[in-house]
Amino acid sequence: MSNEQYKFFLCEEDLPKQWYNIRADMPMPTPPVLNPQTKEPITPEFLNVLFPMSLIEQEMSTERFIDIPKEVREIYKLWRPTPLIRARRLEKALDTPAHIYYKNEGASISGSHKCNTAVAQAYYNMIDGTKSLTTETGAGQWGSALAISCNFFDMDLEVYMVSASYYAKPYRKVIMQTYGADIYPSPSDHTDYGQKFKAEHPSSPGSLGIAISEAVEVAVKSNGQKKYSLGSVLNHVLMHQSVIGQECIKQMEMADEYPDVVIGCVGGGSNFGGVAFPFLHMNLTQGRKTRLVAVEPTATPTLTKGLYAFDYGDTAMLAPILKMFTLGHDFIPAPIHAGGLRYHGMAPQICMLYDAGYIEAVAVPQPATFAAGIQFAQAEGIVPAPESAHAIRTAIDEALDAKIKGEKRVILFNLSGHGLLDLAAYDAYHQGEVVDDTLEITPDEIRANLPKVYV
Ligand SMILES: Cc1ncc(COP(=O)(O)O)c(C=O)c1O
Prior knowledge:
This protein is of the alpha/beta class. Helices cover 40% and strands 16% of the residues.
């Protein structure tokens, strides 16, 4: 037997004790978040309609490290630390001198990285007295993660699931129901906005922007009875995900290597921020030069084709206005199988860093991501979530580029979730039904529908 090591495991004591807050190291000032009604900088009181004060404080915090509460760490221990794996069989299949590592966040209790923030958000809501939460979900990974977390802290949960995914991934609904949540396909008949949208667009596949509007509306109209929870985009969500990158740094040390490039797929930006920001901290403070690459679908090319502007976080214009790369809040993405990447905007922190050249972005088409996902599954044995297959596509492209250049490049990507409940998507690919939905859009088309804000 060879003594080549494949898996790098940390002990439970190695689980990070603090989250890393990139805001403390941001090389540029943070743009304001605006109230969707007044278009003035938002106040904590306004945000408190949606979020508990403890999370609002985290959202605005400039502290570099924030303690992870013991109760949250105890639940993290159910699946964390997650393994870092050297993809030796994929390296061989590609015949590349590159070393490829992946962090398996699909090993979490609900199958993706989303639990890292779901548990924290449910905990802080519980501490602040929330009894019931509302949320949206794209492919169902976020909804599943929040459903199990609400179950742990004895809270009710109402989930608005993008209808394209609701019907394509019926077993996600069953998982959420098993954890005790109520699920509605969005646009739904359950909210004023859902009813209005459905009347105007009866066959809409839905979008994350619409589902967010519905979940926000329910919280806003609940007279304080319900709070809203968002699975990505916001500062505190990216901060909770920093456990991923912090663990990777220790595990890469165990492997006696350091990544030249770190890769993650981006929907709202949380798993990418989670894996990349601790390495960016090393770039900024220790002179490291790791490239950080965000991968998006060509059907929703927010970073690569969007406008950097102030826009609403949701379609109904109820959610706060953020400065971000956007395709426009009323943009309805093609119903690609990577439902978690169908968002018109992007985390403001990722946008600031991309705009200033600290991180890179690429867009990859849907058929090529499935080809990469299948190549990974055949080499490594894990069927990846279609979202994660975007990161795999770029990791393989990096490894092939290293081969052409004869470089021993060290590549790390985040496997944000497994795809065992996405088999209808793989079936569609096997049947030759997965199409290239590359979006053509001009800056003027996006600009036409942006809010008129003056700051
Ligand atoms: C498996 C998986 N990866 C990635 C994403 C994209 O989200 P984010 O960019 O916040 O990591 C999702 C979103 O639902 C997801 O389910």
